[in-house]
Design brief:
4% strand, 578 residues, mainly alpha, 54% helix
Length: 578
């Protein structure tokens, strides 16, 4: 029997119907001009994780404890076109110590972004503030998502598994959610850290990485003072690689090893890149002076971990350290020399400075996922390793568009105006208090009705004189209040003389002499959080010289930073009527 003639599939639409969309197109053609845009299932899963993180972080407000003073510095730098050589924001700051500002570029960026947002919003002061806050929040949101994306790429390169890399992305989001939610220059340092980790996660660093990682260090040194962390990461990778080569082939093989040579050159270039800053090589002794400032020892994040406390990051640290220890036992695999060096270096540091936890946490998934990915599990997450195609790219694009539309971050485009301050600012931000003190209308008048009444009756609608605030409340107040209403302290502890800083801490505790210290500094108003200053709040309630005008003790709130307390000094003319 002769074979039937073979017919090629017709490209004409079937009779009685239309041709399906995309029929006849090979979405997986490796020779297509669009091949560079093809995504795998793992890439789509990563987009889903990043989209969920975007939605989650876009709901959160602008945190108030470590942003506003940086914005104030940025405004000063932009208006004077130089860096100050002495502290310039408050008469209470140390005017004798040289000014050191390694995050000047972050501050200048804050100023530019805030100004763009204010200009786009237009209108009155409140509307311009809403616009500035919204742009700052969007910029930090994008920075956080980019950081997670780069970390995910590092995990993918280190583990060789798309499935485990996506799981590691979920882990790092959970571990660092509180860090990602805080808008401050360290967030910009984290993206530099993630980029460097990504470049170091290949078995042999590429020639391009030898160039762009030093460029990342040059940027980092001007964004935040934590840039030595990047040098430490590159140095740890070099030490680990040398140990691995010596163990495998002896000392003579070190010179012939391409990875060792590239890492050594990279470290030298990174060291050279970090002198590209306004302070030049003196950035290192200046940073050492800053890090040893006695005032920093009074701040929790600069202190050793306290395992006797129920609150704090020490329990997250213990959980991640246990995971790193248990993983080799469970997988029957061992860390590489590079991983061991990095683990030891970054695991010890948080024990002495809680602040270092931010650098340890992203390294935990990077260390454990390669072992999980190569373990002899009954099943491995291989579904996400399927082939690349443009169809998956299209799916990812639809997901991105969906997230952009439903996210609160796009509310300005959808409604025509930025989110109101009640939604965009953290409840603990004293914006209404600052408005009343400066003679401007408050957003939430019911919260500060008592303050507004006494300021109007006793001070003619605008209070002048010093303000004593906790360091966290002082951040916004220092930015918002005019120069004739100076704030005694803020989070930048290194900006104050040690004796003055300790005196402020004594006032916060209502230690003996606190009332005299307030009178000596001509303080007319006190602004603190009730949960963190119970003794001072109780003392002010019992003083006839002070009128409590805001007291949110016991008010339901998810965050103790959101419950505020305000007391105003009674003028001499009104003292007899109190």
């Amino acid at each position: 029997m002769s074979p039937e003639p073979q017919t090629s599939p017709s490209l004409d639409p079937p009779a009685g119907g239309e041709r399906p969309l995309g029929a006849g197109i090979n979405w997986e053609d490796p020779n297509s001009p669009l091949a560079l845009l093809y995504m795998t299932s793992g890439g789509v899963a990563a987009v889903v994780v990043l989209g969920l993180a975007f939605l989650l972080l876009s709901v959160g407000p602008l945190w108030h404890t470590d942003f506003w003073v940086h914005l104030k510095y940025g405004e000063w730098i932009a208006s004077h076109h130089t860096l100050p050589d002495r502290e310039s924001l408050s008469p209470f700051m140390d005017k004798d110590a040289p000014f050191f500002d390694p995050q000047w570029l972050s501050q200048l960026g804050y100023q530019a972004l805030f100004r763009v947002g204010a200009s786009l919003a237009g209108g009155d002061d409140r509307s311009r503030l809403e616009g500035g806050v919204e742009v700052i929040r969007l910029a930090h949101l994008c920075t956080a998502i980019a950081t997670v994306g780069l970390l995910g790429l590092a995990y993918r390169r280190a583990s060789g598994s798309a499935g485990w890399a996506v799981g590691a992305m979920v882990m790092v989001i959970v571990l660092m959610l509180s860090s990602f939610a805080v808008q401050r220059p360290q967030a910009l340092a984290l993206i530099c850290f993630a980029a460097i980790l990504c470049g170091l996660s290949r078995p042999i660093p590429t020639r391009r990485a030898v160039v762009w990682i030093p460029l990342a260090c040059a940027l980092w040194v001007n964004l935040h003072g934590s840039f030595p962390v990047g040098l430490g990461l590159v140095g740890a990778a070099l030490v680990g690689r040398v140990a691995q080569v010596v163990w495998a082939a002896g000392y003579s093989a070190v010179r012939r090893d391409a990875a060792t040579r590239r890492l050594g050159l990279m470290l030298l270039l990174c060291l050279a890149a970090t002198v590209i800053n306004p302070y030049g090589p003196s950035v290192y002794p200046r940073l050492a002076t800053f890090a040893t400032h006695p005032n920093l020892r009074t701040m929790i994040e600069w202190q050793p971990m306290d395992f006797g406390s129920l609150r704090g990051g020490q329990w997250v640290y213990l959980a991640t350290a246990a995971l790193v220890i248990i993983t080799p036992l469970a997988t029957r695999r061992m860390y590489s020399p590079t991983q061991l060096v990095v683990i030891v270096a970054f695991a010890v540091w948080p024990l002495f400075h809680q602040r270092a936890l931010n650098w340890w946490l992203p390294l935990v998934p990077w260390a454990v996922t390669p072992l999980w990915a190569t373990a002899n599990w009954r099943s491995q997450p291989t579904a996400l390793a399927s082939g690349a195609s443009f169809r998956k790219t299209a799916i990812a694009a639809v997901l991105v568009a969906f997230v952009a539309v439903v996210s609160p971050a796009s509310g300005w485009i959808k409604s025509g105006r930025p989110r109101p301050l009640s939604a965009s600012l953290h409840r603990g931000t004293p914006n209404d208090i600052a408005a009343v003190l400066a003679g401007r209308p408050a957003v939430d008048e019911t919260r500060v009705v008592g303050l507004a009444r006494v300021v109007k009756e006793w001070y003619g609608g605008r209070l002048t004189g010093a303000v004593f605030a906790s360091e966290t409340q002082g951040e916004y107040l220092l930015w918002a209040l005019p120069p004739d209403t100076p704030v005694m302290m803020c989070n930048h502890a290194q900006a104050y003389r040690p004796d003055y800083w300790n005196a402020c801490l004594a006032i916060k505790r209502a230690a003996p002499g606190w009332a005299e210290a307030l009178a000596e500094n001509r303080v007319g108003v006190v602004v603190v959080e009730t949960d963190f200053h119970p003794d001072l709040c109780a003392a002010l309630r019992n003083q006839r010289e002070w009128r409590v005008v805001v007291d949110e003790t016991g008010v339901p709130a998810r965050d103790p930073y959101a419950r505020l307390f305000v007391a105003v000094r009674v003028p001499q003319a009104n003292a007899g009527t109190e």
